[in-house]
Amino acid sequence: xxxxxxxxxxxxxxxxxxxxxxxxxxxxxxxxxxxxxxxxxxxxxxxxxxxxxxxxxxxxxxxxxxxxxxxxxxxxxxxxxxxxxxxxxxxxxxxxxxxxxxxxxxxxxxxxxxxxxxxxxxxxxxxxxxxxxxxxxxxxxxxxxxxxxxxxxxxxxxxxxxxxxxxxxxxxxxxxxxxxxxxxxxxxxxxxxxxxxxxxxxxxxxxxxxxxxxxxxxxxxxxxxxxxxxxxxxxxxxxxxxxxxxxxxxxxxxxxxxxxxxxxxxxxxxxxxxxxxxxxxxxxxxxxxxxxxxxxxxxxxxx
Length: 303
Description:
By secondary structure, this protein is an all-alpha fold. About 70% of the residues lie in helices and about 0% in strands.
């Protein structure tokens, strides 16, 4: 009887300790989430603030004088939705092309049986250390390849990133070799093994590298500044940058001429353009995050 009472007391004590431990962990996680979300709250709140209050109160989480003037300037531009379409197209098409190029190079380089894989790997690594420079690249793309004022120029020059290829190669190399060996015994070739065996268990790595490529395409503006002159082909980031430069020029002109500058939403426009630019990425990220923590290769080999 005493033994049973002792076990019951220990069980209650252990349950209480586990509850306290879980509570502390949840509180720390909640505090960390609030700490991470606070800058986004500042950006969102400041985008609805008046320019006058920025000088008086700084960047607020809750605007003192609510206004949508900055969003009217951003969304009122006739080019904004075309720019969104260009960015979405280049992001989707570019990510698919980039992943095709990355996977088709990373998988062979992860196989030890490929004869010249070390030499090819060196050439790929060499591009990470040395580049041709801006002027030769500009002449190649604009003159030799004649890709100016074409959506291809927003995709092809950045379609392959050596660092992402190495990450994908290391992911493939870390997969159990028995997966491919068993398929070889059954008569499968390398393409069948890649498509039917390797890719299904590589979803976390593919999702991660795809996100890297997608963010790179989504935030692209430099190539548009160099090679795009047609307004219908301008991507979102470059359009927003031009809009901010125009407002900055208006602000500077107003100061130099002595005109009141309080009605020009310089700071709130910066915050509004940030919200407009990162909005789709923030909404899509939770759907891709589940692949980052899932261990799909665990248990792939039985016995």
